[in-house]
Design brief:
alpha/beta, ABC transporter transmembrane region fold, Rossmann fold, 2 domains, 4-stranded antiparallel β-sheet, 12 strands, elongated, binds adenosine-5'-diphosphate, binds magnesium ion
Length: 595
Amino acid sequence: MFSMFKKIWWYIKANWLRYVLAITFLNLASLASVIAPKLLEAGIDKIVNKTITKSSLLALFGMMIAVTVGGYLISWLWNYLLFGASIKLEYTIRRNYFRHLLKMDSHFFDKNSSGDLMTRATVDLNAIAMTAGYGILTLVDSVVYLIMILFMMMYTISFKLTIIVLIPIVFIGLGVKILGEKIHAAYAQSQIAFGEMNNLVLESIIGIRVTKAYVQEHAEIEKLKASGANAYRKNNRLVRINALFDPLFRAAFTAASAIAFGVGAYLVFRRELTPGQLVSFVVYLGMLGWPMFALGDLVNIMSRGNASYDRIDNIMSQTPEVKEPAAPVAVGPTFKKLEFRDVTFAYPGSEFPAVENISFTLEKGKTLGIVGKTGSGKTTIIRLLLKQYCLRKGEVAINGVNIKDIAAGEVRGFFGYVPQEHILFSGAIYKNIAFGKENAGAEEIGAAAAAAAFQKDLETFDDGLDTVVGEHGVTLSGGQKQRLAIARALISDPEILILDDSLSAVDGTTEAEILQNLKKARKGKSAIIVAHRLTAVERADEIIVMDNGRIAERGSHEELMKLGKWYYRQYTRQQLTYKTGVEKDDPSADLEIRE
Ligand SMILES: Nc1ncnc2c1ncn2[C@@H]1O[C@H](COP(=O)(O)OP(=O)(O)O)[C@@H](O)[C@H]1O
Ligand SMILES: [Mg+2]
């Protein structure tokens, strides 16, 4: 049970002074509260013995007020110190947790769902913070306060009577132990169910437009219902077991009070106890409730905190598969060439390689085109060169150095990446563009927008660059999102621009305009263009045609046309479509390319 304290010991140690003060004040407050009944006892006995005077009554009254007011002030202090420490712990762990997530690679995010990661950052973190505040409180009170009260009962009133009334209370201890274990198990289960539900809700909110488009509301509701019911059942079980605590307590204390009163009255009759002592004894007995309850809750809080801590720790102890090199080699700042040497890669958990024996070289100033059917491995090539996954066979090199030996930050610094699925942040358009470069000036932003052929769109928005795009850019069309994403990649003026199917949702004319702009603005810089429409790669220095993870054809546009295979057929077909003008700036393209 106390392993939880071991787990947060690092924090308690770092904040030891705060904890020492909090616990000292907490115990002082307890002391004040155990003194109060003694004052009452003295007063009653003085009344019974008829020895009370006006001055002694006033003195007792004054002391009672002093103890109450003092206790109040001290309580304020420990409350503030202790619970302040607990929210600071929550903040600290959340910050570390988030930092850790930022370090993780694509392996990790393939494996862990966002809903689950979020549950850990909220519900679990809350449970941990509980242990650092309320947990300490219950621990101290269930030990020190309990001993203080028992001491007062045993040594200032009656040892015998104390032992007798404690018998029903001992049963609580047994109940606590049995229930504690059950609660632990039930809590872990309810946490898992909650995580699953969270995930489903998140997914369903993100996908709400698709759900509606496919009229899947009913199916979606059924799914959420089932998951919600499951979370409800698990939580209900937890509540049911938890609920056994309270009645157990009440029963034990009612029994104890009855015994105390009966036996106590007999002892008063035999003059072993004064009437004042009997009264203060019953008051102390009532005071025992909280530390006994704290003792029970301690088990509860600790087991929750423990399970939650392990869930956070499980994430924190995962290391990215893509390791940072121990002694990173600097290859910049100028870019000379990028090489793929016989690269073969399978996604974790997949038997079949997504790409196989890929080799190519991209020199400074050149453009590489990658084309091929959906699922043929184009995006995988891009992910590998961005160091998103760990490569085991073959190598990727920049300026002749394996990217394994180059810091991830430096590798990624060479690229301006426009991913296939554009990620936009809710906020102003200029912020979304400037994401590619810190402190980008208005002029740079404007130039990047112009190069991406986004200027025309801006003119149609009321607030221009200040226009706020909704979450994930819902207020923009597919083509507009792509142009914005291209502007973002252009603003850092990267050595190598990567367009991963980034022109799929713009019409042929705009595509030509963008390519023309890029040619002008990026003289001497390199580009990798993954495209579906072959006109986008027509002018590339080399084009590779992917088929089922392998390079099926390669060469310049002219060479591939002469070859007369897939590229030739596809190009001819597309020329036909283009001439008949079927293609448009199609917002639904956004849905199609999400895989
Ligand atoms: N994260 C992933 N985990 C497992 N398999 C994946 C993942 N991403 C893509 N794949 C698989 O790898 C293959 C190549 O995909 P991809 O490179 O995205 O193709 P393309 O970009 O040419 O459409 C496909 O069979 C796809 O299903
Ligand atoms: Mg792709």
